[in-house]
Amino acid sequence: MSYFAIVLLVFAVILLFSVVKIVPQGREFTVERFGKYTKTLKPGISILTPFVERIGRRMNMMEQVLDVPTQEVITRDNAVVKVDGIVFIQVIDASAAAYRVDDLNYAIAQLCMTNLRTVVGSMELDEVLSQRDAINTRLLHVIDAATEPWGVKANRIEIKDLTPPADITNAMARQMKAERERRAVVTEADGEKQAAITRAEGAKQAAILEAEGRKEAAFRDAEAREREAEAEAKATAMVSEAIARGDVNAINYFVAQRYVDAFAEMARNPTQKTVIVPAEMGSLVGTIAGIGELVGLARDQQQTPPPRPPARTTRSGGAVPPTA
User: Fold this and answer.
1) Does this model's pTM top 0.90?
2) pLDDT tens digit sequence for 226-269
3) What is the CB neighbour count within 10 angstroms for residue 89?
4) Which residue among 57, 119, 164, 309 is least packed, with the fewest CB closer than 10 Å?
């Protein structure tokens, strides 16, 4: 009797585990009744019909990452590159993913490989190396459309590595070096050009300022000479008037002025080592005294008004007033 109870207990436990199913979060189980799909169990606890229903497929509903194996692809310009990548997928419909395709991960990996070969083969090497985003976008569009009937959503496809041949890599390195050297030469030439332009502008401005300075100096010199000439002319006129009036001091002033100018010119001569002072200094002092008297006389004449001329008489005996 005890053996029967133990067997019955074991049978009850087995029956309980076969009927009561607990689905974890992120998973979905398909249910088959006599081998035919009937429903999908969501996360939680579910009870099946004993001896009639059973669990068919246990599907992972979380986002998965599949590795695309490395493969050699010939580009449009006949360059061979090694390409691999990764694809991010997520099962949306558990029943479609379970019963519409066999070995879902392998099918998606092969689909990615063939489309990767097609997309990369339609592009040139430079485009492949520089337009990874365009390749990813085209692959994602194609893979997502192909996996939609399987109940799978392709979220992202990324090219993980692109490896061109060694000789092409060396050629690209030399090309990059030559391009950078060309840019350096162009930049240096532009700098020298700007420096030359700046120096030329500076020289131009300096020449303009120097010419303006010379112009202003010449104008000042001319004005000074003009004023000096006017003063000389007035002095000469005054001396001439004094000589005309018979003033001996005016003659002495004129002679003394020339004498002093000649003596000063001789003293300013840079080649002159010795200046001989004239022996007759008394004559020079007398001349200077005469110049002083002449200056005083000229001052007195400026302060004293000129005398009025006498009145003239007419034939009739009348007086004619003097003219101003």
Assistant:
1) no
2) 887 787 777 777 767 766 766 656 666 666 666 666 666 666 66
3) 24
4) 309
